[in-house]
Amino acid sequence: MEDILVKGTIEGVRIYALCTTQLVQELNVIHACSPLAIAALGRAASGALLMAATMKNDERITLRFSGDGPLGEVVADAKGNCVRGYVDNPEVCLPVKKGKLDVGGGIGAGNIIVTRYLTNAEPFNGYCELVNGEIAADLTNYLYKSEQIPSSVALGVLVGSDGEVKAAGGYFIQAMPDSDDSVLAQLENTIITLPYVTELLEAGNTPEEIIARIGQGLKVHINEKIPVKLQCTCTREKVKDMLAALPTKDLQEIGQDEIIEVNCHFCNKSYKFKNTEL
After folding, report:
1. 276/265 Cα distance (integer angstroms)
2. How many other CB atoms are found less than 10 A from the CB of residue 170?
3. CB 84, CB 126: distance < 8 Å
4. CB 158 within 8 A of CB 198
5. Secondary structure of 62-78 in the HEC alphabet?
């Protein structure tokens, strides 16, 4: 199944659904993740894409899950249909909890920090305590408490016994100002009985079909289908600009080595510079 995000409405309620299996597997390979780490990072990346879909194409959002668990920070950054991300400690493993990867234990207690980079405006930061570190519940709680938007977020990553990502994606439901309470109640009842999003994707359900299942018995309208992809924004020129902004003392210190190597957290790409360039 291709990586795609589908935007729709169900009788005045906004609903987005997406499949990110391929791009999450790319993240898995780039960062050499353990099953636990890619489950956390994949959920964060899918969540960032869903939230970026509510913004203008030239605006960007960064999700930072900062807890006291062994994974360290889990970061996902999305703009339009592109996402990138990393986890501080991608090699971490924990015992399964109730038959599932213990993402909450990996992230631990702490905060979610959401940064919105809006057009012609200063970046806006929002904060909220983590509910359980499982990503989806934390995003749902953040949207309700920090942005006063009643929402429901479901995210999942299914990792096979070989360590490869078999299914990844999620959906996002958001009440609009004119949403009918009876419609919201019906959607809530449907979601409660719905299989996990990874089960739906693994069974072959497309994001559009997931929206149709959630909106069964209601009027469903599909507005747009957008391919999504993993893409880092780092370039050699950007790294040069970053180095140029360092204090002279720091440049002199790192310039003692003949070759200076700068590594991008998001894509693991390395950029090398001769000390004469500094």
Report:
1. 25
2. 30
3. no
4. yes
5. EEEEEECCCCCCEEEEE
Task: Round to whole Å and give the CA distance between 48 and 76.
Answer: 6
All residues at 6 or more sequence positions from 161 whose CB lies less than 8 Å from its CB, including other chains:
none
Q: Mean pLDDT in the chain?
A: 94
| Those residues with Cβ within 8 angstroms of residue 64's Cβ, 6 or more apart along the chain or in another chain | 73, 74, 75, 112, 113, 114, 115
Q: Is residue 50 over pLDDT 90? A: yes
How far apart CA 3 and CA 9 sit, in angstroms, is: 20
Residue 189 has pLDDT above 90, yes or no: yes
Quote the tokens at residue 272.
Answer: 């090398």
- What are the tens digits of pLDDT across the range 122-139? 899 999 999 999 999 999
Domains of the chain, first to last: 4-230 (3.55.30.10), 236-274 (no CATH)
- Determine phi and psi for 188, rounding to 5 degrees: -60, -45
Burial of 124 (0-12, 13-18, 19+ CB in 10 A): exposed
Structure tokens at 178: 């004119």
Residue 156 has pLDDT above 90, yes or no: yes
